[in-house]
Amino acid sequence: MTELLRLDGVACIRGDRLVFEGLSLALGRGEALWLRGPNGAGKSSLIRLAAGLLRPAAGTVTRRERIALIDEAAALDTELPLRKALDFWARVDTVDGPAVTRAMDDMALASLAEVPVSMLSTGQRKRAAMARVIASCAPIWLLDEPANGMDDAAQARLVAGIAKHRANGGAVLLASHFALGISDLAEIDMGAFV
Length: 194
Ligand SMILES: Nc1ncnc2c1ncn2[C@@H]1O[C@H](COP(=O)(O)OP(=O)(O)OP(=O)(O)O)[C@@H](O)[C@H]1O
Known about the structure:
CATH class of the largest domain: Alpha Beta
InterPro entries: AAA+_ATPase, ABC_transporter-like_ATP-bd, ABC_transptr_haem_export_CcmA, P-loop_NTPase
Domain ABC transporter: 5-194
GO molecular function: ATP binding
Structural class: alpha/beta
Helix content: 25-40%
Shape: globular
Radius of gyration: 16 Å
Keywords: ATP-binding, Cytochrome c-type biogenesis, Membrane, Nucleotide-binding, Translocase, Transport
Distance between the termini: 30 Å
Strand order of the largest sheet: 5-6-7-3-8
Number of helices: 5
Order of helices and strands: EEEHEEHHHEHEE
Number of domains: 2
Organism: Sphingopyxis soli
Bound molecules: adenosine-5'-triphosphate
Largest sheet: 5 strands, parallel
Strand content: 25-35%
């Protein structure tokens, strides 16, 4: 198995509180891992550690490939029409226009291409954030509550997108309150590390 992401003996301190410690995980090509646990268990913190946005208080984080991240902020320019906002990130990620078109199709966003991001609904913004992740072509997806605000049809597209990514050799680290119906999903109960 080719490991794309590895955490060894990681501890996380937020403010002056130890959120978790002694946490290790490895994520290989085609694998998905669900971080579950109650509010405050540290699911979002672990996603941010994996992304390199937080420094571990102990242990090591190793990323062997590019990452794409969804968290509470969609990171799309709210002033731009959706297509242009996604094209901006495509240039940053050095991917081509067809990748953006395919990602928009995957998340059923084609009809919203000219709509400013600021006018999208909550669920549409989540779909747009997911399209950005898909279009990035990054092998490691770090998804923090990606289904929040999505209706059933959007969730089904999210699950299909994750399956396609894994089939193409990608890996997914998912923080979520529920399993989303993803098959062959490993899990870590973050409550066990508090
Ligand atoms: N910027 C911050 N400064 C200080 N403490 C923080 C910060 N962000 C989060 N925390 C604390 O870290 C702990 C873990 O928070 P985190 O958001 O990682 O949990 P979570 O499992 O994702 O929770 P939820 O299910 O509510 O989204 C909480 O006690 C939270 O109050």
